[in-house]
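Need tokens for this chain, all 502 residues.
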Amino acid sequence: MELLRRRIGIEPAAAAVRRPSFEVAFLGHAPGEAVVAALTPFARARLVEIGLPVPRHRDELFHRPLALRSPDEFHALFPAARTTPTRYASRLAGATAWLPRAVEDFFRAGGSHLHAIVVPEADPTGLALSAADFLPPANGVELARPESWRGLAALLHLPQVGLVALPDLERLAIAAEVVGLPEKRLPNPIARFVPVSAPAYEPGAERRNEQEMEAGRAPRPIDTLAAVPPLLDFLARWRPDVSLLWTLPLEKLQGAPEPTIAAAALRRLREWRGEPPSSTAASSALSSSAPSASAALPDERLRWLARLSPLFPYLKGPRYQLLSPSGVVAGAIAARATADGAWRSVAGRPLPSDAVPTPAVATASIAPLRAQGIGVLTHEGGALQLDDERTAAPGAARSAEGTRLRGWLLRELEQLGLELVFAPENAATPTRLALEQWLTDLFRRGALAGRTAADAFAVRELPRREGQLAFEIELAPSAPIDRLVLAFVNEGGRWQAEALDG
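Here are the structure tokens for all 502 residues:
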């Protein structure tokens, strides 16, 4: 097009392809006041889009996915969450919520699209804490009542989320009496008579803090080992495309200078994999070079375990005394998945954080933990790194990036199904061509392995039943998975995707 007698020329140019962001969800606490008016137009629009009313009061913010594009949006909504004391405090994890700092770490690491699901703090019942607000409803999910989707069930509102973390549930798992470094011991003062007008204490002498926790009075920490199976059961039933980041709990062994990984967590991982029990001591667990041999697990069990990505240790830095690493790891995963693809790993790459792993894992213990499916954070060359991305599943299913690719493919196929919803139900040829075009693009981007596209994937139409059109898609992923088989089925006018193998 030319304007002003050809003195100005406009040349059409192709728009740059913008990859959709890899979306992540965090569940946690945000104590203190809430400024509901600070909810951004973007967050309001997302709530309306998924059929939820816009909150008008603080209590209406609970269990609702709040879309965030920066940490400032979170802090504007919950301005006191970073400093308000929580109802449960521990000497090592502190007395403030972990969700605000995890949000900061996520965006600092490059993440761009986060959903914060704030759950209320439960009052300790006697001396016991409860994880009920993090878990999906115990009596099942009522699909006809979206307002009842509480805890992890709020993920049903977010079809594009591929990763979830629960930083404050990890905080509640740290016992109040667990300490990091040996406490300073002051000598007892020598008893002597002093005038009544003298101060009741000496400058520099040890004295009781009014907020100090008395031994034996702190609530028992949450047993996250018991909370994880209901979370994975929900994901297996309703969101098989989502992975869960979980930092293993700590314990303090008698005579040890600092806490270490809880031996009960390592035992539970072995039980879930069907491995024979090993030593109960964490020190001996770390010295084992490989997991014990186990019987072959059913495919459903393998996929159940593959959705869990254990991490260790925690982080400590100038902005916090202890924090879950899930914020920075999830941010790095989201940034790399958005830029290069969900099949790309963040292992061995510097993570943008000023924190260091705490307690530090000895070099000799990294390989044993990696062999047990645990992603170990290290501090190499002055930079924080994730040694490897792992899942709790044995064998080839242990690749976390492979599991992430599988979930991403399921979400992309569901999206493709929405685009094909107006195609005739018996239009096999156009559907097959759309699938092949989509897979060819994945091959060119490096998601699939092979010399040619024909080596990378195969699309086969399955025998038809009345009112059904189905395809089997076999892939050779570039991620460390031998083979991946997906089903893409149209039944009753609705396309659905399912992972059959891999």
